[in-house]
Amino acid sequence: MTQDTGVQPYYASNAADLGERYGGVPFEKIHADVLDLLPPAPARVADIGAGTGRDAQALAARGHEVVAVEPVREMREVARLRHPAPGVTWVEDSLPRLERLTGRFDLIMATAVWMHLTSGQRSAAMARLAELLAPRGLLVLSLRRGAPPRDRVMFDVPAEEAAAHAAEQGLELARLTENHTDGLGRAEVWWQTLVVRRPE
Q: How far apart are CA 167 and CA 107, in angstroms?
C-alpha cells in the first residue's frame, strides 16, 4: 500500500474478505515465474505492501528473515491471525518514502502495489527501493495490468516504465515476464513481473 493516494480506506474496510481471497492463491503459483531467481536462505527480505501476509509467511517458511511492510492496521491484524509466522517482523510504513526501513535487503518484493502510485511517486519509490537493495540484491515488482477498477485509486502501469525508472537508478534487468491468467480468475486483469538487480 501507499501514502496519500486515498486507497487505504478500501483495504481497511475489506481486510477480512481480502485475506480470504488472496490467501487462497499459493505463493508458489503467484510467483512461479521468478522462484528460480530468489536468493538462497537465509536472506534478508522486505515484502512491501505485504497485505494479509501470504508472501511474507511463505518467504519466512523458506528460511528468510522477512520484514513485512504494510500501512493499513486492519490488514496487519488479519495477517497476524492468518499467518503468525515467527520469522516475520511487521512494520507500519509505505511507499514511496519507506521512512522506517533501515539497512539493506537481498530481496525486495512489491506485489500488486505499484499500480497505486502516481507518476511522481513511482519515480521516487524506485529511487528509495534502489537505496535499500544490497549488492546483487533483487527487486521483484508484480504489476497488475488492465483497466483500473472504480472503487479505489489505481493506474495501469506498464513494466517498461518501471524498467526505465530502475535503469535510471543503475539497476540491471534480470527478467521480464507476462502472465495473462489472473490468479483470482478476473478476465480483465493480467500481470507483468519485472525483476531488476543491483550490480556489485
A: 17
